L-rhamnose mutarotase (Lentzea albida), 103 residues
Amino acid sequence: METVALHTRLREGREADYDRVHATIPAELDGALREAGVHSWRIWRSGRELFHLVEVDDYRAMRAHLASHPANVPWQARMAELLEVEDDYSGAEPSVRLVWELP
């Protein structure tokens, strides 16, 4: 299993919208994430900065599975309205690299 850290940023003034949208994740999206091998996905927000920690069997395979999944496409369209940079699913590598951990 992989643990992947991601960083995204909200558009200015969209913090409350983001929190509201994430209060309930659609059941279809939850199922799609689990089908894609996601065991856990946690998001922290500090102002406009979002920090994700994802535990997944295979990050690249997850991205490929979700790229055109019918539950994920409308979710990503909604997120594109809120995020400063839209995720176009072109990248298969996480945006944050581990540089240190307490053993």
In short: The beta strands are 2-9, 38-46, 49-56.
